Structure formats: C-alpha cells, structure tokens
C-alpha cells in the first residue's frame, strides 16, 4: 500500500482535531516549569529536562491540536544530548498521535540533502521538515523522493516572519519580488501528480509569515494547492485576522504556529495570574483554546471542539 | 586578552602550512576503508566507525593543511550518535591543530540563530560555520557577537557550486544578480572594525563556488576584505585555474575545499591502482599534495613545503 500523502494526513488531522493550531516547541531550560529544572548545569541534564518537559507537553496538547513544530536549534544548543532529546520529542509527539513538522531549515546540494533526508525522515521519522530554498530547485529534489515513497512533506521558506526577511525576499526581480519567484518554484515542484493528495493539496508546502499579511494574501493566491505553515502569530505581532489570509475558501490549507505564546504563556500576563507555574498544563490548554477560538472567529469556521 | 580574529587565525594557518587546501569531511560508511567497517548495521556502530576514521584522517592531514570542513549532514544522517561523532570530529581536528569550518548552513531568526551559535560555537567549539542568508541581515547578527567575543567566523552562502544555484542566486535584481546583493550584505556586515583583523580581512566570509569562475572573479572583486570558502574543485568540475580567481593578489583570502577527491581518492582511478584501500593514508596525503601543487601552480605562489 502506498504511503498516504502528507497533505492529506495534515488535512485529516486538522479536521479530526477541529484545529489549525501548530504548537511550536522551542525549549529553553530557563523557561521550563520548576518541576523540570535540572539539578546540575550540564548539557546532559539540560537535555533530559527538556525531553521530560516536551513529553508532558505533547500529552497535554495531543487531544487539542493536529501538529507540533519542534525547533531543532534549541536542541542543538545542547550538542549530542540535545539532539537525542530532539529525537525523543519527535517520537513522543507521534506516540500521542501528533504530526511533527521538524523546523530544521536545512538546505544543501545533491547527496548532502539526501543525507539530511535520511536523518530527519528515514531515521528520526519527522512527518515533514522545513527547507531553505537558496540553493535552488535541485536542492529540493532529494526530499521529494521521501515525500513520494513515505508520505513525508516539506515546507519551503518563501516569506519569513522576521523584519530582515525584506532584505532579500522582497528584492524586485523584474516582475515580482524574490519571494514570489520562490513561490513559483514551490508550486511547480509540488505540482507533480505523484506529490498531490486526494485533498488536492501537495506535500510540498511553504512557510509564509503572517507578519506581512498583504504578502501572505498574494502568496496564498499564487500557490493555491500548497499547504502553508504560518509563523508570526502572537508574540511576533500577527493577529488572527492576518493569519486568516493563509486559508483556502474551504478552511483548509494552512496551519498557524505559536511557540512560547502557548508553551510558556504561564510566565506572563493574565496566564501568570490565573494559572502560575504549577498549573502550566492548564495554561497551555487554555492558550491553545484561546488561539483556536481567535482563528475560528477570524476564518469563520467552526470553533475547536 | 581579546580573542584573535578568525580571519587572522585562518591566514596564519595557511601561511604556516603553506597551503590553502581545506579538506572536506563528508563521511559515508559505505566508502570507509575496510579497517573501519562496523560489524553491525546500527546508527551507533556506524557513527563510531565514522568517528574513528575521522580521527585517523585528521592525524594524516594535520601537518599538511590549515583547515577541515566537516559536513554535518552526513553525521545527522545517523541521528544523535552521528551528532556525537560530529562533535568528536571537531575536537579531534582541533587537538591536532587544525581549524574547523563546520558546514552546517544554518539560517534562522533572532533567538533561534542565537541557539545555533550557542551550540556550534560555544558548546561544540567550531572555529567557523557556514550560514544561509535567505532570512536576511538580522539572521546573521547573533553569530557576529560570537565572532567578536570568541574569535569565531562565518561563511555566508553567496554563490553555491551546484547547477541549481542559478535558479535564485542568478536572478536579476535591477542592477545585479541576487548573489551580488548577498555579497554586498556580507561585505557590509563584515566591515565593522570590530570584525576586521590585522590581516585586513573580516571574520565574515563568503561561500563562492569555483564552478562559476566568472562570477567568482566578480565576487572576489566585490568583497575585497572577505575570506572566501571555495567549493567545487575536482569532482564537481572546477579546475585550479578557476579556483585561483578566489585569491587576493598577495595569495591570501581564500581556502579551496575538496572532500571525497581527497578522503576517498583511494577508491578510484590512479590512486586505486597506486595505493589501494590498505594505503588509504598515503592516498590522502598524496591527494593533498597534488591539489596543493595544482593550486600553487595556478596562483603562482610557493608550493606547499
């Protein structure tokens, strides 16, 4: 039996959970609830603390959201023990039925990209990864083999959510900014029928920040069959109305990420007062509901159950 | 005492070894000499085999070349054990007096880039890393703090050596191709006096493939104080004459990488006949000398001692 297309898996998960929220897992030991604080200040103990926290975190959110996005940089900061904690986090999330988009932003040529695909798809088993397009179309191809054969997906950086994204991504290239050229590359790469699912969506997705809502609207139109991974909600300044521009008319086609705004909400504002550190699990669940409600109101779709 | 500028360290190492050869470490278990073949087909044993081979490799080349470039993708392909082997390889190379440019091609925003810098500079201790510019100038800044404080360096991807590099990097952006815009960003980022060494070179370098020698010549002129890391020699098709365009008039300012053309030369052609698998160390040394001689002849500088 051929593997189910990643876009179909993502669409089904969003429908099942009635949510398009992606929870970003960006661990910092200094932000963990006190119960996870390592006793010693070593990479191994820090990594173990992060792994234990992430395991609890995914248990809290698994009934509520379709997908998580671990940011590998915060694991790599701890070296090999951190990389192990990253692998454990991917497995823990999948054991709970969550899809995993590994935010690795890899980008390299031919056989090197194939090595990344082996590591992150075949060995670690992420359902999808983020990919950097600067090296060109041939740097994407090795991942597509895994997309076809094993139901994996990629999200190619098109327009990122940081202020500096304008430095290169907005450069005018004759008839469109660079990000639109990348969008065309993503659309073309994903249009191969072997990569398109029953949902009509391709397993070749794009990262499109909601902090630039006009560009997001244009990019949604330019890539009508491309799943969008949308960063920028909350702490980075994008609103639910901004994010709503990422969805297709039928309410599918996008997931919206929030990281610390969910996982570490208990550290500030009303969540600190209402829940505090001991009730961090309740804070996480409440933050997911609040974000889901805001997105549902902005997109006009049903609220999360 | 402030840390010595990375560009000065690289220039001094090239002078001491009388060589501008960078040996790329791109390990594949299937290519290792028989003495390192793992007994079992597990990621842990594969990673141990790679680590043992890399330790022997750096002992062979340490007297001959200034710098090595481990490609982390081939380590990540083995998961956490591979990441440990990567860390061990960095340390083994530095113990032998080699500089290490970690080919990680990371690129991410703000605090995420800072986490990569913590991992690859502060914890693992690479002397320099390769960085992807697609996210813009603010994605470079977190690395520069480590460059100033700890004598580290970065090599920003400007024009890569693969055929697909033309897809985006050659796009015309009004008055120049995208790669030239990135070159300007690299030059400007590196021009801060706190980043420029006594050699006149900045610790903000660039990756410029020798497979496009005309662009390489132009990029060298556009970034006169920027160290260049030059891939593409040998297997990818660039000649020593192509690579010569990367050097400044005084013979400094660039290192030229070769990976499998050195490390696995014993597997094919005249090296297979002359040395074979058992004398792989002699093959590595001979390949380094051959490349050094070719570069010296093309650049008109003294041959390696």
Description:
The structure is a homodimer of 305-residue chains. Chain A is of the alpha/beta class and 305 residues long. The first copy, chain A, has a single domain (6-297), classed as Aldolase class I (TIM Barrel, Alpha-Beta Barrel), CATH 3.20.20.70. Helices cover 45% and strands 13% of the residues of chain A. Chain A is built from 13 helices and 8 strands. In chain A, strands 1-2-3-4-5-6-7-8 form an 8-stranded parallel barrel, surrounded by 8 helices. In chain A, α9 (213-222) links the parallel β6 and β7. In chain A, α5 runs parallel beside α6 (141-150). The longest helix of chain A has 20 residues, at 280-299. The first copy, chain A, is globular. Chains A and B meet through α3, α4, α5, α7 and α8 of A and α3, α4, α5, α7 and α8 of B.
Record the SSE blueprint.
The structure is a homodimer of 305-residue chains.
Chain A: H1 6-17, E1 21-25, H2 43-61, E2 67-70, H3 73-76, H4 79-95, E3 99-106, H5 110-123, E4 128-131, H6 141-150, E5 153-159, H7 166-169, H8 178-190, E6 204-208, H9 213-222, E7 228-230, H10 240-244, E8 254-258, H11 260-263, H12 269-274, H13 280-299
Parallel strand pairs in A: 1-2, 1-8, 2-3, 3-4, 4-5, 5-6, 6-7, 7-8
The CATH architecture designation of chain A is Alpha-Beta Barrel
What's the CATH C level of chain A? Alpha Beta
* Strand order in space, largest sheet of chain A: 1-2-3-4-5-6-7-8
- Name the largest protein-protein interface in this structure: A-B, 59 and 59 residues
Radius of gyration based on Cα positions of chain A: 18 Å
Stretches of chain A where pLDDT falls below 50 for ≥5 residues?
none
Multimeric state: homodimer
Mean pLDDT score of chain A: 96
Number of beta-strand segments of chain A: 8
> What is the string of SSEs of chain A from the N terminus onward?
HEHEHHEHEHEHHEHEHEHHH
Relative strand content of chain A: 5-15%
Estimate the helix proportion of chain A, in percent: 40-55%
- What structural class is derived from the secondary structure elements of chain A? alpha/beta
Total DSSP helices of chain A: 13
Distance between the termini of chain A: 32 Å
> Could you please say which CATH topology of chain A applies here?
TIM Barrel
Superfamily (CATH H level) name of chain A:
Aldolase class I
- Please tell me the total number of domains of chain A: 1
**Rough outline of chain A:** globular
